[in-house]
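Re: weekly structure request thread

Next one in the queue (466 aa):
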Amino acid sequence: MPEFHGLTRSRLERRATTDYSLLSSTSPLTNAILFMPTARLAELRSRTLAVIMGGGQGTRLFPLTRERAKPAVPLAGKYRLVDIPISNCINSGIMRMYLLTQFNSASLHRHISQSFKFDHFGNGFVEILAAEQTFASNSWYQGTADAVRKNLMHIQTTDFSYALILSGDQLYRMDFRKIIEQHADSSADVTIATIPVIAKDASSLGILQINAERRIVRFVEKPKDPGTLNSLKLDRATYGPLGIQSDTDLFLASMGIYVFNRDVLLELLNNNLDDFGKHIIPGAIENKRVFSYVYQGYWEDIGTIRSFFEANLDQAANLPKFNFFDPPVFTRPRFLPASKVNAAALDHAVISDGCIISRARIKNSVIGIRSVLDEGALLTNVVMMGADYYDTTARSSRPENLGLPLGVGRGTRIENAIVDKNVRIGEGCVLTPEGKPPEVDHPLYYIRDGVLVIPKGTVIPPNTVI
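Done, posted below.
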């Protein structure tokens, strides 16, 4: 069977049944192309502008956010969190994106500038809109809606009909063409992406109630009262039409993904309200056509150290919940050498580019770019983020580095931990949160949600026992 850019004909045809119109001709030219986007989908995506929120402090992900913005936190060995919404846009054919930044944004700006460069002759871009003082405002972003409002003078210079508002710190795969198509077909003013969740998760999310048309008629932010929560249950009669296959009571939770008509967005932001989820959306439900787009794939809000830790370790599973392979997730092209393994025992491990591993044992762990593991190192349930550079003798010999090279030293054991970038760990260390409180602050480490976190650039002396 012939290959088309790495995809077999049968796989292309499966894609075509949902996203494309197959060409009926069997000419050689047609066979080479095989499929093309429908004119309508192409028009909708060309009229869409994505706005990605990247300005929050990410306090619940501290200390990973001590020196970087939350969307810039490394993910799955070689990516950054912000790569997810940008890749979803690119894979959906949405090539115009603004990224709103504010807090600890230097590394995020550097990553974007080095990763996403579009054709000079096209109209695609990923443009950073950093928080700035103006004659109209000299304050920081007060919330998601306030961030967009303060950048309207830039956003309005772009010609668009639909604004796609996205979070910069969620892990999911979505074809945005589908939500935009539903938005246009339903003549909606606002469309909110929602996901079915069980009662245990519903109390920590914004829960929506819809009618038979999928129009949202009620919104409750983090309902704690059992009676209120019970009244928001999704009617089981709608499971079939929505394509939900479940015997469990479900609730529709907002994913923080919105589609606005341009004029509606400008109207709803003509006030001093700060947040889309808390302020703009509840008010819009009363007097606008606000609809739900029901999404049923994998979605994880990377909001805590525990959720970040588990989402990363899931990549080492036989069948991860999130697939980085197809369609691809795009990131910075580093041109690193292939990893070199000088004998090792690997059991469910993800090994990134440019690593050097010598007689180490790695179990259920993710090893980031340029990681170096010396002989006898034992890593179990570890997310190791790697390094921004290869070490030199001059750098490691600096007094503050104690003569230690980057990476994990000989005979060191690490368990249930996140090791941030550019960490130097001496030989004979034992690093584990076992037997300690779930929350600990220490000059060399933190424990959050029962996970040990070694901050970026930390130097752990030889024979340290945590």
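The mean pLDDT is 89. DSSP finds 15 helices and 29 strands in the chain.
Next request, please.
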